[in-house]
Amino acid sequence: MENGNRTYPHKHGPNTVSGDWVQQEADSVPAMNTASYRDRVSWWAVFYKSVPNAIGIGGMKYAFNSSEVKWRRLFWLLLILVAFCLLLYHVTNRAQYLATYPTSVDIYTNYTDVLTFPTVAFCNYNAYRHSMVAGTELEAFLNGIMFDSSFILNASSTYASFLDSVTMSDLFIEYGHRAEQSIINGRWRSSETLDHTNFTLKITDWGLCFVFNDADSGDPPLTVNRPGKEQGLELGLNVEQYESFIDSTARYSTGFQVLLYDYGTEPLITDQGFAIAPGTHTHVGVEVTETSNLEPPYGLCQDKALKYFNNYGYPECFIECRSDYFYNACGCKFFALPMVTNDEECTVLDYFLCGGEHWEGFVKNHTCDCPVPCHVRSYKPSISNTAYPSAYVESRYSSLFSFPDGFMQDNFCLISIFFKEISIQQVTQNVDYNFFSFLCDMGGSLGLWLGGSILTFFELLDLFGNSIYIHSKRAPNVRK
Q1: Each residue's pLDDT tens digit, 274-332
Q2: Largest distance between two CA atoms of the chain
Q3: How many CA atoms lie within 13 A of 376 on its CB side?
Q4: Do residues 242 and 391 both lie within one domain?
Q5: Spatial distance between the Cα atoms of 196 and 170, rounded to a whole number of angstroms
Q6: Torsion angle defined by CA atoms of residues 180, 185, 190 and 192, in that order, rounded to the nearest 10 degrees
Q7: Which residues 6+ apart lie within 8 Å of 430 measured at CB?
Q8: Are 83 and 120 members of one domain?
Q9: Could you read off the pLDDT of 158-170 as tens digits, one per residue?
Q10: Same domain membership, residue 218 and residue 71
Q11: What is the pTM of this model?
Q12: Within 13 A of 297's CA, how many CA atoms are on the CB side?
């Protein structure tokens, strides 16, 4: 429009610029290189922008939301950091506990209809009968080393022909107490009468023993279906104090060493037995315990393979270890090792010369690798005593059998062995805390402190992976 000589441009809407002007301005701007998307937007920005919706943790949507006011974001961020520290402490504590391989023990009583009666070994404290060794070379030799420790060096030549011709097992059997003289009478389950033929002879670490319900006899194990003395073993024994003989191997007490052990296993009489004395009636109530232990790393048990025994147990392992020690030292078999090897047993000369020399070294310095068995059945005795016999019984028997005064109290003893109840106490070692328990604790900690779960870890991994993928693969929208 014209007004006089002046010309005015056409008006457009308020605050607008004509398209021609914009185009001219655009054309006047020099061309610029367009930066790629990954250069203009950092990975951290992609990660930060995705956090509120990618991880299901309470408070994330406030702490990482740029539209929220600063103090609110700071408050929630602080809460999340504190909760994360508590979570880290809890998880670390549980991880350390898991690393200790913790266990627990369950104890319960299993009532059964039938129980296997234990094998019972009876061993006289006196090794050799005086009437058998009196006037023999054995008496002179044993008495000599009893009072002079160096006697063995001189005696080795004086008694060499005798000492080198017999073994310790020969001495125990030939000069030891006889079963028919030691076992006076007996009853099994109040109905079956027993005598010496119901017992087997066994050479043990103690010496010669009489064994009842022995697997070596070839008979099946005896069983009991009711508790009480009427269903057990009652045995009268003669200590034969009048046959006592003192020597360096003798024990200065009188009586019998008794051991209850599982049928089919080996005994350690010296370490595990209990004693009964003449002039007493010993009442032995038995409780059965079965123990199940865990293997490493949670426990220490191991059913180790043995050379001389089919089944593993501590007594079998110790007997084998001791026998191997003396075999390596002396070149012959220790007398307590059962006849399961063709190795020649040590003679009496070997036993006292070589065995005596190395015995102290074995006891003090040698350690047997005998781990805890994984399964053990044991028979725990509860022992009480009464005087035996009564004055009346002794007077009657003394007159009947022409015993001298005090003979029965000095020589006879009575023992009753029975189950207190027909049950087995089961002791089982269990894994108390495993990796699954650890995962459950982790999930509980996440839920308690952060409102998350185990899946939160996978959400976090997904967030990292997805943000990296978006940052590396997403192309910019370039305007042409």
Answers
A1: 999 999 999 999 999 999 999 999 999 999 999 888 899 999 999 999 888 888 888 88
A2: 172
A3: 21
A4: yes
A5: 20
A6: 30
A7: 103, 104, 105, 106, 294
A8: no
A9: 777 888 888 989 9
A10: no
A11: 0.78
A12: 7
